[in-house]
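Re: weekly structure request thread

Next one in the queue (434 aa):
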Amino acid sequence: MIKKSILILVIALSTSILSFSQSVINSPYTRFGIGEINRNGFNNSKAMGGISTGLRKVNQINYMNPAAISSQDSMSFILDIGVNVISNELKTTEDQLTYNNGSFDHIAIAFPIKRWWYASISLNPYSKIGYNITQSEAHPYLTETETVKNYLGDGGINQFTISNSFKIGQHLSFGFNYNYLFGSIEQYNQTYISDVNSYSTVQYDKYTMNKSNLDLGVQYYTDIKDKYFVVAGVSYSTQVNFKAKNNTAELTTGNYINAGLSIIDYLALGGSIDTITSSVDENYEIEVPARYSVGFSGGIKNKLTVGFDFSYQDWSDVKTIDVTNNYTSDQTVNFGIEYIPNFYDLRSYLKKINYRAGAFYNNSYIQINDEQINNYGITFGLGFPIANQRTSINVSYTYGKRGNVDNGLIEETYSMIGLNLTLYDFWFIKRKFQ
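Done, posted below.
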């Protein structure tokens, strides 16, 4: 029975979800600020180019605009679980590397409280940091010896969200998210020479932070001639002022690089360490600016959905990690489409599949050597209905590029496959017969 399956999954995942909530990533651009921020919603939205502000689906949890939570049936319960697999190819004018990683993406539930009041609870990564950058040059005094600088970062921020969504009349809904953000970021800046008997100097920083903020959203929706529909939405995320603690230290260690180890592996194995200086700042300031978004969708009921989003964030004056005038305004455009050949077909399963596609273009908040780092790509996806037609297995694929090889930068090409299971059931029906 689907109710028992849902309960078993919730209990099993709840006991261990925090240990998987930090996503693995390898991107040099996560070195800046709090890393790569998740702005694309769950896999259903990702397959449609990341649209969410004006997206309103009866069998999907769209926490990116909390007003959309009220779209589900008043007697239904939804559980959504997702994972991602990502492949990154990093390229400069001289080198090329490829990384493959998998990670937890989200777990969420949504349910009605009243006919006009709906709620959702979710846990997913908010930001991700993962980079390992090495620069080398000839030593000024020692022949056949190089001075090497290595920059390594790891960690991220998790987001626990409680959403409330309210229907106001027949065409308007309002919602808000209470988000609790928590996590830690570790950075290691290391200098050493390519001599097996040398030592490494390591500048270590660990930022531990937590804070709450709100997302507000509104959607207006209406039908046209009982066949077509239109949705317009706006959303606003308040600024986050993290209460952070910065543990910093300057260390000397053995030259673990020549042993084929990273600093994290070396410390885990109990390698020799001498602490030169250490300090703790209990009031370190880390900010994430307010975000504004507007979106539209429309089409034919149970057949065609076309949507568009635009969002804006001004990072130019924020206080964050490693502030070196590398931040500017962030602007994103998303476009998506979903097509169902025949939602009610009883013979051909292929005609009931949800076919999705989209594209996105982001002028990111990162600016290096006076060049703004752009991130753009295309998306595809399939929704495979099972059981009651609204329960589904969804697959998304994203192919994107970030940065370029000009001006000493790094070009990142990435492919991401997302998989999520959406379990949809009616839990609140009073049965007349046992």
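Residues 346 and 352 are 9 Å apart (CA to CA). The first helix runs from residue 2 to 14.
Next request, please.
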